[in-house]
Design a protein that fits this description.
203 residues; seven-stranded mixed β-sheet; 8 helices; 7 strands
């Protein structure tokens, strides 16, 4: 019920009426390595659907940083997952969040952000921050709801990701979610030139 209440309070930052399902969480976090000590960043963790899946894959290894703009969600998530570094901040400030922790890059960024609720400028700012924060062989995952896949915000997001990553793979439909969703797997972020622009890509 708390998730729905937060949606009612601020639908532009929540963007969904129910938390993501375990099936979607597994699909979105499948890229988190089960070996080594990776730095994993979670954007928009909300009530922690993806958080739990990431923690299970890490099994005590590496670093798990969760960036949440909603202070109530951030407080609850921090109490529920003391091993996770929960940060109350905007995802667009990701590079600063990492720098404050002595980190320059992340190996994986998993997003639960409500992209369709973002303005075009905010979408661009957050994606740019993700590209800047990822290692050259890093992986970024996010998702979109099937019913809204061809809506202008979703199409804009896909175009933006394809312009910023060498590879964007779209999963099969995750039907066991409300509503059904697709996961995007984005690999090898594009280099940014001296002006901050991303080289044009096609595909």
């Amino acid at each position: 019920m708390s998730f729905f209440l937060e949606f009612v309070r601020d639908p532009m930052t929540i963007g969904a009426v129910a938390p993501s399902s375990p099936a979607l969480a597994r699909a979105a976090t499948a890229v988190v390595p089960r070996t080594g000590s990776p730095v994993v960043v979670e954007l928009g963790p909300g009530t922690g659907s993806f958080t739990e899946a990431i923690q299970q894959r890490l099994a005590g290894r590496g670093r798990h940083i969760a960036v949440e703009v909603n202070p109530r969600f951030a407080d609850k998530l921090g109490a529920l997952h003391p091993a996770v570094d929960v940060v109350h901040a905007d995802a667009a400030d990701l590079v600063t969040v990492l720098a404050q922790r002595g980190l320059r890059q992340a190996d994986v960024v998993v997003s639960g952000l409500p992209w369709a609720a973002f303005t075009e400028n905010h979408q661009r700012e957050v994606l740019s921050a993700v590209v800047d924060a990822l290692s050259p062989h890093g992986v970024f995952t996010t998702f979109a709801y099937v019913h809204a896949w061809w809506a202008p915000p979703a199409r804009r997001l896909l175009r933006s990701m394809r312009s910023r990553f060498d590879e964007v793979v779209i999963s099969r439909t995750v039907w066991a979610n409300l509503p059904p969703a697709l996961v995007y797997y984005c690999r090898r972020p594009a280099e940014v030139d001296e002006t901050g622009a991303v080289p044009s890509r096609h595909g």
